[in-house]
Write a structure and sequence with these properties.
Arc Repressor Mutant, subunit A, two-stranded antiparallel sheet
Length: 62
């Protein structure tokens, strides 16, 4: 969240749930105080990132 500008916690949560449902991210909850959750890319997420990064670089150079 700290790397995304002006995104509400609810919007971020909703987007992460969508990405998890699509199999692009994995959610791991830790039984700690305070509670902690980490997200990581799945193999499909890694592959999508590899494919989309050249497009994003191209678009930002325009």
């Amino acid at each position: 969240m700290e790397h995304l500008n002006k995104i509400s916690p609810k919007s971020l949560t909703d987007r992460l749930k969508e990405l998890e449902t699509e199999g692009l991210v994995k959610r791991e909850a830790f039984a700690e105080i305070p509670p902690r959750v980490e997200y990581s890319l799945t193999q499909d997420g890694v592959e999508l990132r590899r494919l989309i990064m050249p497009i994003m670089k191209w678009a930002s150079s325009r």
